[in-house]
Write a structure and sequence with these properties.
This protein is an alpha+beta fold and 479 residues long. It has 20 helices and twelve strands. It has a four-stranded mixed beta sheet, with no helix packed on it. Strands 6-7-3-8 form a four-stranded antiparallel beta sheet, with helices on both faces. The protein has a four-stranded mixed beta sheet with strand order 9-10-11-12.
């Protein structure tokens, strides 16, 4: 059905919102997503204390059409490039109403409207599906890629054009009015109110759905011209077999975006020849085609971006402040979710390859190529924990000295999840015992190699300084 205007538009949407069960289901999702409160100071905890009364009060407002959206609370979060991204935090009440509408509209758009190559903010799709499409395209010879970024997308969506597109599917005037009021609600910053002329606030529950409804126009225009693509929210890639075809595809995309009142960010947009150029998408770097030395067979690479490792370390650092005094179990409760979250994301590559192989697409992608980075991340995590777990004047020196007592095996036994183990065990089923043995052997080999290297150079390995450090470590470890 695509982006054609519906003959039978959706009526009576608002009526479906006027049920306490619908509002309660929306509240559960809002609560799970956590997040701060809006301009009224109401938090998830405070709203939940009088939940039944609050839901009934909100239901009454909706039934009598007295519900009016509040301005969002403007906050800023740092972007990877060092700039700040504005977020708009709606009140709890607005989030519940928006979620209720999303719960009703999303399945309808999923069933008949949205394109199968749009992957962001959609149930049962996401990053694995997006990576799967990338691999499928490059494996089948679509190696000329238009890597596009839309300039300030969420801030620049024209309100009237968005409403016109929504109007193609929704005939319920009350719902359309409510969406319009959300778009026009403005924001509060440092006690002042500001109007908005364009955009949908990042941070609003309904914003991802509205974004997909808006860019669905682009998806079907590309489909109409037989252009292969993958889109994740406002980032998308176009694929073609020749440079000429990809340039034509890029022109069609740019013209369509212009019609939608949007523009391409030229400094972040480029044409890639995957036979010789790499590109990044969704936190992964895809390394161009190359040939194996031993037999000349073609392959390409995929791995987490360089900045992902910095982000990993920063998240661990934030969770292991040495000013806190916690027991080992509490420390693990802080770092394990970060490790699991990151590694599960890294496994996106493995899952995407597996999915494509189910459909008979033989993979030439090498993605198990960052074991060293995983081991380095594990070493960093253990060192952060050693320092954090010393309650009496913790220092890096003392942390290093505790390596013999609080070693790799110790942390594995008390339940620290090693990133290296988790990544490979999810693929090959390794046990934690096999991991501990592997690391022990690795350390023994390294130790033997260091002694051998010193001997070759005619140097003494156990220098007085090294012996002094070893004795200091033993003393600290036994204190």
């Amino acid at each position: 059905m695509g982006n054609q205007e519906l003959k039978h538009k959706w009526h009576s949407i608002y009526g479906q919102m006027l049920r306490d069960r619908a509002l309660m289901a929306a509240w559960q999702k809002v609560r799970e997503n956590k997040g701060a409160g809006g301009i009224d100071g109401e938090t998830i905890d405070s709203y939940g204390k009088n939940l039944d009364a609050n839901i009934w009060k909100l239901l009454r407002k909706l039934k009598t059409k007295e519900y009016k959206p509040s301005p969002v609370r403007r906050v800023y979060i740092p972007k990877k490039n060092g700039k700040m991204r504005p977020l708009g935090i709606p009140t709890l009440e607005d989030r519940i109403v928006q979620q209720t509408l999303v719960d009703i509209l999303q399945p309808k758009f999923e069933k008949d409207i949205f394109h199968r190559w749009s992957c962001g903010y959609r149930p049962n799709l996401g990053a694995t599906r997006a990576v799967q499409l990338i691999l499928w395209n490059v494996e089948t010879g679509y190696n000329h890629i238009y890597d596009c970024d839309i300039r300030g997308f969420f801030d620049n969506i024209p309100h009237k054009k968005l409403m016109r597109i929504l109007n193609k599917y929704v005939a319920d005037g009350t719902v359309l009015d409510m969406v319009w009021q959300w778009l026009k609600a403005g924001y509060m910053e440092e006690g002042k109110f500001f109007n908005v002329d364009t955009g949908t606030p990042q941070g609003g529950v309904i914003s991802p759905l509205l974004a997909n409804i808006y860019l669905n126009e682009l998806d079907w225009k590309l489909e109409e011209h037989g252009i292969r693509f993958v889109r994740y929210a406002d980032d998308f890639l176009l694929f073609a077999k020749t440079e000429e075809d990809v340039r034509k595809a890029a022109q069609i995309a740019e013209e369509t975006l212009h019609e939608l009142g949007l523009e391409v960010s030229m400094e972040k947009t480029r044409i890639v020849d995957f036979n010789k150029d790499d590109f990044d998408f969704l936190g992964f770097t895809f390394g161009h085609w190359r040939k194996r030395k031993k037999d000349g067979k073609p392959y390409f690479l995929a791995q987490p971006k360089e900045s992902t490792w910095k982000d990993f370390r920063q998240k661990i650092k934030d969770k292991t402040k040495k000013t806190l005094t916690l027991n080992p179990k509490a420390w693990l409760g802080r770092v394990n979710p970060v490790i699991s979250g990151k590694v599960n994301y890294f496994l996106t590559l493995y899952k995407a390859v597996q999915e494509n192989e189910k459909y008979g697409q033989k993979s030439h992608c090498y993605f198990n190529i960052f074991g060293k980075q995983l081991l380095a991340a594990d070493g960093y995590i253990r060192q952060r924990l050693r320092v954090a777990m010393i309650h009496d004047h913790p220092t890096q020196r003392k942390g290093h000295a505790m390596k013999t007592r609080w070693n790799n095996e110790y942390f594995a036994r008390i339940g620290l999840i090693p990133a290296f183990w988790l990544y490979y065990s999810c693929q090959f089923g390794y046990t934690i015992e096999q991991y501990v043995d592997y690391i022990k052997k690795k350390q023994e080999q390294k130790y033997a190699k260091n002694i051998e290297r010193a001997k070759e150079k005619g140097q003494e390995y156990f220098t007085p300084d090294r012996v002094r450090k070893m004795l200091y470590a033993q003393r600290i470890a036994t204190d």
